[in-house]
Amino acid sequence: MNVEQIKNVAVIGAGNMGHQIAALLAIHGYETRCMDTDRKVLEKAETFFTGYLDKQVNEGRLSEKEAQKAAAKLHVTQDLEKAVVPADFVIEAIVEMLDVKRKLFSKMDKLAPKHAILATNSSYIVSSKIADATSRPDKVCNMHFFNPALVMKLVEVVKGEHVSEETAEVAYQLIEKIGKKPVMLNKEVEGFLINRIVRVIRFEAYWLHEMGIASIEDIDSACVHGLGHPMGPFRLNDLVGLDLTYTMATEKFKSTGNPVDLPYTSLVKKYAQGKFGRKTGEGWYTYPNE
Ligand code: NAI
């Protein structure tokens, strides 16, 4: 398959990441089916998309006609079969849990056309850990978007040993077609490029905070004013979701058994309190209007 043959795409999981990835694909003309098990999440995704398109029209970035065309391209469903059976390309964006992802990929493998590529948006898990749950490991790769996906340019594509040249190339070109900036990793490594770098900063920030060396606000302010980062590690953690950070750490610990990979105490506390960041109205900071 070459990139021009991709007409139908499926995005599985319509949460923080999936709803924006689906919107992006629909705006770029792909017949997009966005699936989630949670009806409310799908309703929220639809409301978001309508509001987003209205804003694009009001601000002159899209014409009325283009917005209508994009709106007609996005379909939401709770039915995996409906989403995946017609898909040339699938992007999975469900919870960051290896066993759940493996089960999903095994199901999708049975439903998707033989030529379809199955990509995962996982933040951390390399696709070789998922690919062997399918009969097409050469067509399973990482395609890692950043949050918020409609805004952030970068997408990491990972060409693990099991991934064919064709799959990596098509994934890379699809990213270019939807106006993003792909980078190719020639070997698998957990966390890819950016999350490995960010993880070091985040762990250091947790440590500085837990040692009482500076406040959350001042640690964030130091990164913004001293490093030129658009936001500090705690603010970024609220955007990404503390639940995801917690799950990533526990999943990593499960695979390494190394106590340094365990989540920091302050993160465990927030997680236990259900303070996941912007999505719950409170994380390291509070968000009364979200
Ligand atoms: P989320 O928790 O906001 O959304 C996950 C969605 O998946 C939920 O709506 C849930 O109902 C749905 N879901 C769970 N199991 C499902 C299944 N079997 N079939 C269909 N839907 C299912 O999670 P978020 O933050 O969007 O993350 C999704 C993926 O994207 C994860 O792998 C994460 O590592 C990755 N990612 C997250 C980023 C972030 O900043 N939050 C950034 C880049 C990647």
Please describe what this structure looks like:
With 290 residues, the protein is of the alpha/beta class. Helices cover 47% and strands 13% of the residues. The protein has an eight-stranded mixed β-sheet, with helices on both faces. Helix 2 runs antiparallel to helix 3 and helix 11 packs across helix 12 (265-272). The protein binds 1,4-dihydronicotinamide adenine dinucleotide.
The helix/strand order is EHEHHEHEHEHEEHEHHHHH
Average residue-wise pLDDT = 97
Percentage of residues in DSSP E strands: 5-15%
Please work out how many helical segments DSSP would assign: 12
Which residues sit in consecutive blocks of at least 5 with pLDDT less than 50?
Answer: none
Helix and strand composition category: alpha/beta
Bound molecules: 1,4-dihydronicotinamide adenine dinucleotide
| First and last CA, distance | 42 Å
Descriptors for this entry?
8-stranded mixed β-sheet; binds 1,4-dihydronicotinamide adenine dinucleotide; globular; alpha/beta; 290 residues; 12 helices
In short:
47% of the residues lie in helices and 13% in strands. The protein has 12 helices and 8 strands.
SSE layout and pairings?
Layout: E1 8-12, H1 18-27, E2 31-35, H2 39-58, H3 64-73, E3 74-77, H4 80-84, E4 89-92, H5 98-111, E5 117-120, H6 128-131, E6 140-145, E7 154-158, H7 165-177, E8 181-185, H8 194-210, H9 216-227, H10 233-240, H11 242-256, H12 265-272
Parallel strand pairs: 1-2, 1-4, 2-3, 4-5, 5-6, 7-8
Antiparallel strand pairs: 6-7
Helix pairs in contact: 2-3, 11-12
Bound molecules: 1,4-dihydronicotinamide adenine dinucleotide.
